[in-house]
Amino acid sequence: MVELTPAMQAMILHWGEMGSTWGLNRSAAQMLILLHLSPDPLSAGEISETLGLARSNVSAGLKELHGWQVIEGSRHLGDRKEYFTAPRDITVLARAVIAARHEREVAPYRAALDTQMAAATRDGTPAPVLARLRETARVMDALDNSARQALDDTLTALADEAASQSQNDTAKPKKKKKKTS
């Protein structure tokens, strides 16, 4: 079981609330941030015990997180349990959330717009209306592409910055403590 500090508990609760806005259920979102924060891989039993969730809820959450491709499972020699980890890099999690939201929010609207434009071409919809539908699709695509590029650039810059900081932290020699007599 992971010993949760008050700050970790608050973060887990907050992620649970945010998860529902991303299309991830509360328990799965809490499990994701627990795995992200945990220094070691955790078994389903450890997740259940730490978060106070039923094992069935943990199993369903792990399946959902696998579907989002944000966790990995591994087995240890001589141990029947599977242990789970989440990426340590928060930008990887951010990319997964953004991709899932896109699939849930933008892609269905864009597909419906394509269907409506095809129907409008066949059913005699007036040319000015069809032109507005096409313009809507063009603007939606441009905004979607711009948003994706901006987010990707930002997340890449943040990941590069974190990697650079990590290298600087490991490259700095540690100062020896002076002995006091």
Please outline the helices and strands.
Blueprint: H1 6-22, H2 26-37, E1 42-43, H3 44-51, H4 55-67, E2 72-75, E3 82-85, H5 90-122, H6 127-171
Antiparallel strand pairs: 1-3, 2-3
Helix pairs in contact: 1-2, 2-4, 3-4, 5-6
Write up what this structure looks like.
The chain has 181 residues and is mostly helical. It has two domains: 6-85, Arc Repressor Mutant, subunit A (Orthogonal Bundle), CATH 1.10.10; 90-164. 71% of the residues lie in helices and 6% in strands. It has six helices and three strands; from the N terminus they run H-H-E-H-H-E-E-H-H. It has helices at 6-22, 26-37, 44-51, 55-67, 90-122, 127-171; strands spanning 42-43, 72-75, 82-85. Strands 1-3-2 form a three-stranded antiparallel sheet. A hairpin with a 6-residue loop joins strand 2 and strand 3. Helix 2 crosses helix 4 (55-67) and helix 5 (90-122) runs antiparallel to helix 6. The longest helix has 45 residues, at 127-171. The mean pLDDT is 89.
